Amino acid sequence: MNKIFVDACFGKETPYTPVWMMRQAGRYLPEYMEVRAQAGDFLSLCHDPKKACEVTLQPVDILDVDAAILFSDILVIPDEMGMDLSFVKGEGPKFSDPIKDEADLERLISGEEAASKLTYVYDTIKLIKEQLADDKALIGFTGAPWTLATYMIEGQGTKTYNICKKMMYSNPELLHKILRKVTDVVKLYMEKQIESGIDVVQIFDSWAAAIEPGKYDEFSWQYMVEIAEYLKEKYPHIPVIMFPKGIPAFLDKVYGNFDVFGVDWSTPMAFAKERLGDKYVLQGNMEPCRLYSKEATTKCVEVIQETMQGKRHIFNLGHGILPDVPVENAKHFINECHRVSGKK
Ligand code: CP3
Predict the structure, then answer these.
(1) Every domain of the chain and the residues it spans
(2) What is the spatial distance between Cα 136 and Cα 140, in angstroms, rounded to a whole number?
(3) In the beta sheet, which residues pair with residue 313?
(4) From atom 8 of ligand 1, which residue's Cα is the shortest distance away?
(5) Is the Cβ atom of 39 under 6 angstroms away from ligand 1?
(6) How are beta strands 92-95 and 85-88 bridged, if at all?
(7) pLDDT in tens, 16-45
(8) pLDDT-derived band of residue 89, with 50, 70 and 90 as boundaries?
(9) Class of domain 4-340
(10) What are phi and psi of 118, to 5 degrees?
């Protein structure tokens, strides 16, 4: 059966414009909170294929999105490379022993050995594929090497990125060595996700905007493109979505063999369309906080539809949905995307 989401990723004509939401499996859903409580905590949920499968499917059943996204986290990669990951309540992710020097990097597990440790992810994918309807797509994902490296170097989320930027300007060779090691794991990790059954790949570069535009290619984009091109060469039938958040100044320089460019909410859709719309399908890009108001949501969906005209477009938010959004407003967003693009 044709998956309309996959068709749309390849720029084919579809009966309506498909939609999904970044972070669609998560805390705004009471059903998610229930399964997370049963699992004990977030990481245990990621490690439990049965429960991870269950929460992956929740937004498909509840909201009727056109694609499921694998329930996991970008930070399981450094975790399995040997960095001890924990999620501290209310504070987000933490690595107890961030990378300070070459010796710290040397200690980390590399390549195939690291990618092979993520079996719970591959098992989750296989379970999801048994249960997901044939006309829905399953999106697998990774963090971009740069975004992963920010956590591996800072040890946690950061507002200033001062530790990794100190490395960028005073010891760029070490930063490149970290990015190289992560890139090599990610290529194999995504290949194993594809072999396990995902239909689409998304690469999240959530902290792209922390890099000055003139350095973005060197420290992030080239590694993302390397991953995309490695996968496209082996698996041309699997679409690749790139989501670098907040880099409008780089749009004229975007290059590479991939299918969909994820537009974040700070970049006007018309601006992205003018620069990239002929070359890539565009995904996005409602400001996620519009979800607090149904009127603000409808307005934005109509404007995006007016701009994209249902061509070479996938509806999404311009970043992840927040935990305090009412479920009925999320449903409203999905319904409106389907309505304006003519879903019967
Ligand atoms: O529905 C989905 O999108 C699939 C699951 C998913 C999660 N994380 C689950 C999650 C995905 C695709 C991610 C990606 C991710 N993780 C990114 C890139 C996407 C983005 O939003 O920019 C980043 C930067 C992370 C790292 C991360 N994970 C942080 C900073 C945090 C804490 C902040 C927060 O949102 O709570 C997490 C935790 C996390 N990942 C949660 C979920 C559902 C919340 C954990 C919980 O249940 O308490």
Answers:
(1) 4-340
(2) 13
(3) 282
(4) 73
(5) no
(6) antiparallel
(7) 999 999 999 999 999 999 999 999 999 999
(8) confident
(9) alpha beta
(10) -90, 40
